[in-house]
């Protein structure tokens, strides 16, 4: 990820085809050692491709990925009785924590 981020920074700065040496220079400027194997793979995969088109393509793919609580709700339904017991325990913990202030408010 750090290699890709450095590549994108260089591309945003106007370097349309950053080399491995360019990316290593960016990473070393912030104290990060570049992994040569991964760096070579990133450069090879992005060589000759338009960054703006790749970002647009990736954004359209991400738009189709479900997000939010739907997956968590499905997992809780599959767990059955164990999922029902967990909220009760959480409510008990909240009551215990509310007693910690011993009746004194922050601005009293």
Automatic annotation (TrEMBL):
Assigned GO CC terms: cytosolic large ribosomal subunit
Annotated stretches, region: Disordered: 63-108
Biased composition (Acidic residues): 90-102
Gene3D superfamilies: 1.10.10.1410
Gene Ontology MF term list: structural constituent of ribosome
InterPro entries associated with the record: P1/P2_N_sf, Ribosomal_P1/P2, Ribosomal_P1/P2_euk, Ribosomal_P2
GO biological process terms, semicolon-separated: cytoplasmic translational elongation
Pfam family, one: Ribosomal_60s
Domain of life: Eukaryota
Keyword field: Phosphoprotein, Ribonucleoprotein, Ribosomal protein, Signal
Signal peptide start and end residues: 1-20
Bias (Low complexity) ranges: 68-86
Subunit structure: P1 and P2 exist as dimers at the large ribosomal subunit.
UniProt family annotation: Belongs to the eukaryotic ribosomal protein P1/P2 family.
The protein's name in its UniProt record: 60S acidic ribosomal protein P2
């Amino acid at each position: 990820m750090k290699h890709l981020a450095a590549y994108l920074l260089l591309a945003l700065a106007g370097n349309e085809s950053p080399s491995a040496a360019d990316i290593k220079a960016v990473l070393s400027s912030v104290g990060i050692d570049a992994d040569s194997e991964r760096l070579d793979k990133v450069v090879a995969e992005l060589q000759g491709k338009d960054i703006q088109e790749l970002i647009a393509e990736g954004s359209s793919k991400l738009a189709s990925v479900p997000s939010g609580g739907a997956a968590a709700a499905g997992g809780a339904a599959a767990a059955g009785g164990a999922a029902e017991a967990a909220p009760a325990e959480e409510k008990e913990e909240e009551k215990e924590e509310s007693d910690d202030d011993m009746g004194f408010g922050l601005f009293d």
